[in-house]
């Protein structure tokens, strides 16, 4: 039996003591290590398996952390973490109080820049390289690893455009595997495919941007990688190395089913087979409710189109892409484009459902204001992954959308209590609105098994009394209202406590609020968004404007970034769990 190499490596300095001939063995050990941990603990799998050889070569050739290394998105950084002192705690990856699933500056000196959203690496590494030049350090290397899906984003091209007119010592490594989370799309994908086949047009797009281009080369050939990186280390100015890799390399199922094995959940580390719970009737995921409902509506309404920026599987727009492909569009990692594309479609009479994760819509804020709301174009935004999303952590929590959207004129904001409300607001929106609407809903399963019911139109700005009380009113918005209902049901002597569902965060049901404030002594608001500027703030503003002097307790995400953990753990930290709701109600009872 061969002696383990990985067991003796805790830093890149340890790695450099190995001979080149030992590195393929190390690559296999790292793959086995990643597979073993992710099989049991879950996480992102395929991307990290695909860059094991590249990771080894980068740390073998360059002087990290003195040389800066940035991993775009960070899905592929597990091998990097293992080689940079986090091997012994890697099993805590994405767990509460454990290491992050993405590179993070405060976690390690080897993480040169925090990532989680795509296409930021080129701008970040260029900023670092220019800073080195200003400081007079022209020998320091600056490397960014970016995938073929991420490099198609507008921000990546902005970085390339700037870098090409500098003398910054930047190396961009294009990790080309023809897939991000879903297969890569667009004209650039076709161009890169032609480059790999040797049928591209004479001009190289990267050379036209003043990059010294090399490749494409086999990204799994360690000696070739080392030789080329050593050569490029001596080349000054902006350069780009194009490598070809296989996502999921080393695990047959991950290579053959790259979408599923991007983040497969638990699986058998020996066979690669997915471990699924026993089948039993469960409520659907909100994503699937959206996906099935838009198909149902689109089959009846020929003006409906669907748009997603690179997330057809995650958002479940894939169902429409399969059944009505000419009216469902994956535009790649291009949130700004997705929003303004939808605006253009509305202008010509179509009804676009623009499905973007809440955290990613932040990247298109100007387009929401300038291209949609200012012109009062009725785009239907479906904000997937609203609220705390769990183990992806701070970069992915969708907790700011209420606050950043509520201040925009003309925009309706709706948070359904359950799957039936989600279906009904989608139905209502496509009947014809005169202004844009944002529909926010969480990741994961709801609680309604019989969710597919006959559509009902929802009156804009309406709300519901779920339980009448006498002293304390709890006003909730969104699916957190189900937690409130369960909490109130468990309270002893809950006659005093009323509960109201306000799915419309904007416009608020003013008549209902006047009735609540006239009938109750104290108010509790709760949301799965940030407290500052959120739903509770809207209720407090209403009270102040109408001269109500009630005690108002606002529950929501506090003014700090929430890290990673299970959703249940994070709700407890944010104090929007059943115990915290109960405590807030009891405090007001005693006051």
Task: Give your account of this protein's structure.
The chain is α/β, with parallel strands linked by helices and 591 residues long. It has 24 helices and 17 strands. The strands form three sheets. A seven-stranded mixed beta sheet has the order 7-6-8-9-11-10-15, sandwiched between helices. Strands 1-2-3-5-4 form a five-stranded parallel beta sheet, with helices on both faces.
Gap from first CA to last CA: 71 Å
Alpha-beta classification? alpha/beta
Q: Give me the oligomer status.
A: single chain
Helix proportion = 25-40%
Largest sheet: 7 strands, mixed
Low-confidence stretches: none
Strand elements, count = 17
The radius of gyration over CA amounts to 26 Å
Q: How big a fraction of the residues is strand? A: 15-25%
The geometry reads as globular
Secondary structure topology:
Elements: H1 12-16, H2 23-41, H3 46-50, H4 52-61, E1 68-71, H5 78-86, H6 121-134, E2 142-147, H7 154-163, E3 170-176, H8 187-197, H9 205-208, E4 212-218, H10 222-233, E5 239-244, H11 252-256, H12 286-300, E6 304-308, H13 312-315, H14 318-323, E7 328-330, H15 335-347, E8 351-357, H16 358-361, H17 365-373, E9 380-384, H18 401-406, E10 412-414, H19 419-431, E11 437-440, E12 464-467, E13 472-476, H20 480-490, E14 497-501, E15 504-506, H21 510-519, E16 522-530, H22 535-545, E17 551-557, H23 567-574, H24 578-590
Parallel strand pairs: 1-2, 2-3, 3-5, 4-5, 6-7, 6-8, 8-9, 9-11, 10-11, 13-14, 13-16, 16-17
Antiparallel strand pairs: 10-15, 12-14
